[in-house]
Amino acid sequence: MSENYFKKYPSKDGFYKEYGGAFVPPVLEKEMKKIADSYFTISKSHNFISELRSIRKHYQGRPTPVYFCNRLSEKYGGRIYLKREDLNHSGAHKLNHCMGEALLAKYMGKKRLIAETGAGQHGVALATAAAYFGLECEIHMGEVDMKKEHPNVARMKILGAEVIPVSSGLKTLKEAVDSAFQSYLKDPDNTIYCIGSVVGPHPFPMMVRDFQRIVGIEAKEQFFDMTGELPDNVVACVGGGSNAMGIFSSFLEDDECSLYGVEPGGLSLKKGEHAATMTKGKPGTIHGFKCYLLQEEDGQPQPVYSVASGLDYPGVGPEHSMLRDINRVTYDSVGDKEAIDAFFELSRLEGIIPALESAHAVAYALKLAGEKPHTSVLVNLSGRGDKDLDFVIDNYGKDYQI
Amino acid sequence: MRLTNIFNNKSDLLSVYFTAGFPELNSTISVLEALENAGVDFVEVGMPFSDPVADGPTIQGSSTHALNNGISLKLLFEQLEEAKKRVSFPLILMGYFNPILKFGVERFVERCVECDIQGVILPDMPYEIYDEKYRHIFEKRGVFPIFLITPQTTDERIKLLDENSSLFLYMVSSSSVTGKSSGNNMQQLAYFKRVAEMKLKSPVMTGFGISDNKSFKRVCGYTNGAIIGSAYVSAIKNSVDIESDTLSFVKRIRG
Ligand SMILES: Cc1ncc(COP(=O)(O)O)c(C=O)c1O
Q1: Residue B119 is part of a domain; what is its CATH number?
Q2: Could you tell me which of A49, A284, A347, B118 has the fewest CB atoms within 10 Å of its CB?
Q3: From 3.20.20.70, 3.20.20.140, 3.40.50.11220, 3.40.50.1100, which CATH number describes the A61-91+213-396 domain?
Q4: pLDDT digits (tens, 9 = 90+) for A162-221
Q5: ipTM computed for the complex
Q6: Secondary structure (3-state) at A201
Q7: Interface residues from chain A to B (CB-CB < 8 Å)
Q8: The pTM is what?
């Protein structure tokens, strides 16, 4: 990996080798260029950086800790560490890029933020940022996810956001993105579409990654402070891939660190029962960018499913697609059942209730730790599980004596 | 009939967009026949995609419906091969890039040639990517892209697209999605005038939000004609007699 990785990727046009770009209709072409230009000028300015730093410290409560899991490591072997993004304000890593995007929106003179949300974590984070900056906020969410993640729907409404239910297709994340795009196209001048992950047309995958890099920067230093070395393994769940890019970005050039992206294996790897994009997908374009894509023979995106609403997306970030091709990151999948097991293990052995998304990463870490007794594993615990409690109790409670 | 002949010989052109495989899987051919009989000048056949970011609810709905009917590119080309024996007005294909990528770009262009398709509109394919990666494949076989311009497109870029167009430029009437009525405002008028005054070499067709005789007449004052999509798709959505509904639709538009 060359030293100027971040200068090289993405290219000027937003490509990570063959992936990424901006495959957008002309109405959006100019707006995307404008956002990219503003990003390069504004977000590198001293004022912007100072304000964001201050927000991260005093408002978000950063840095979030790295925590060594005593009982979990004892039971499974290895040494398991968590980067506690569940302790980031609003309960997940999502606020890291939302505060950045909203601050940029403010500098650009935008009045309204819109976005899609799957698990509702991104929606809550954006609604939080909108409240902080005094901007309007409109969140698109599939009806299926609204039911499953109703505590987050309530939070968004309390924060003053408008939640738009999406009833097309499978009524989940992909349809929410379609709906948010539609709304964005109606008034791109006053609005900014704050996409929820390292996906979408350039410059979003780059911007979201850059705002999430703080996770990796902190974690690397904290881990070194605690252990005097770098982690042998870094693990993160991958929906679109924002929390994973955030933590991976600090270790890309450290070849001794193995990096693992964990995708949702759902019920099985049969079509329609998972969202393991890297395992089963082929390169394609969706929502304005090129990436690995779960798609039919005729190029239509496939239906996807996962117990974790924030992970069931048929595409994946373009940078992840490249990192897979150059074999820097290993992508694998964890099914619903293993994720739920890990959800309870972490809750009962460490007193930390993870988001179902993050539970996928935990499950994979337990596997790695079990295989190599002396290995160290740093997990990005991307969010807390409060939003998932009712769903887990209703559907899995009796298997765990509830 | 070649498109260039039509542009040279006629004004106030009426072009219609419809979604292939809608309302029934096999409607494609009967819709084309109805449109030709009704005197439509040329047609954009929509290749359905499940996530059409530039389209409003009407076309999105018809696309989903058509996909549920079982339409695919492969099947569409079979329908078009049959259609070519029955209609003679020019046909253009319009659709998103991924199904074409999956189908194979060269194979796609080959099939276009076999089906007498003269041009393609790919709303999510930026000019730069077309130019760099795909241009040679299309040009070699004489299938040409039609580029979109919007109120936000700069003069400089309009000129670039004009110089690189072989058929016509598609002027999107407002910065929005398909199917939203084109606001009758000063801003839009200024945009129409700006483009008209550029004296482009290519013919210009206006689309997005045209739904009646008034909006049709208005855009014909500035450009070679209009493209109507959502209004027509709505008109045949629940039609029991596509032939006569198409005829009265076209009559209503032309006035
Ligand atoms: C807690 C948490 N982790 C992870 C994700 C997945 O997103 P990404 O892959 O962009 O990190 C989500 C998405 O909603 C989430 O809420």
Answers
A1: 3.20.20.70
A2: A49
A3: 3.40.50.1100
A4: 999 999 888 999 999 989 988 988 888 899 999 999 999 999 999 999 999 999 999 999
A5: 0.90
A6: coil
A7: 13, 21-27, 29-31, 168-169, 174, 177-178, 181-182, 185-186, 188-189, 282-288, 293, 295, 297-301
A8: 0.94
